[in-house]
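Work Package 4 report. The design task specified in the project plan requires that, given a folded chain encoded as structure tokens, an amino acid be chosen for each position. We show below one input record used in the internal validation round.
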């Protein structure tokens, strides 16, 4: 790919104004990892009236340079300051972790879409990536709402178990897209 083409690719899309270089935001942010176990201490926000918990999650897309080539980075994030849990219940913690896992599912779907797109045939890459991102954010929002509705915010234990299994299966099915780095140059 030509350098001029790569310079067009260099842009950042964010949800809620995250900045990769802002250390206070980075301290507040958890990047989804299969190795990281959420704990009650990860929920620093205030619980809204009528709720037992809330996980504030985001799909974050930005670019980085690697040996003169531009790569996309897509991460599922959770804000500690905006996430809240009013109980020590492992069950409620697991429900909120489900929200974070769903966010990772949609981060993987975005990585998949970016990898499958032939950018050599695209005139306005920024518009295409922005559209992909907006669509994923909408799909993520719908999935989060469906998760809470069907599990009745975790109160329906049967549906919660169904969703727990569904989330594990979806993560496994998208395992090829687990890497946060999306290298479109070498495909």
């Amino acid at each position: 790919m030509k350098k001029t083409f790569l310079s067009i690719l260099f842009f950042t899309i964010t949800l809620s104004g995250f900045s990769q270089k802002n250390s206070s935001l980075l301290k507040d942010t958890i990047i989804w990892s299969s190795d990281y176990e959420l704990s009650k201490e990860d929920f620093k926000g205030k619980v809204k009236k009528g709720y037992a918990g809330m996980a504030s999650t985001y799909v974050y897309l930005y670019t980085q340079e690697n040996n003169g080539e531009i790569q996309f980075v897509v991460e599922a994030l959770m804000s500690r300051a905006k996430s809240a849990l009013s109980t020590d219940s492992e069950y409620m913690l697991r429900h909120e972790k489900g929200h974070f896992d769903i966010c990772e599912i949609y981060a993987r779907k975005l990585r998949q879409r970016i990898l499958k797109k032939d950018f050599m045939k695209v005139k306005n890459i920024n518009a295409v990536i922005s559209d992909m991102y907006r669509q994923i954010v909408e799909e993520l929002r719908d999935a989060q709402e469906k998760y809470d509705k069907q599990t009745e915010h975790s109160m329906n234990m049967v549906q919660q178990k169904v969703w727990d299994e569904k989330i594990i299966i979806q993560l496994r099915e998208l395992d090829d897209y687990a890497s946060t780095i999306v290298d479109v140059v070498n495909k």
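Strands lie at 29-31, 53-66, 69-85, 181-182. Validation will be extended to a larger panel in the next phase.
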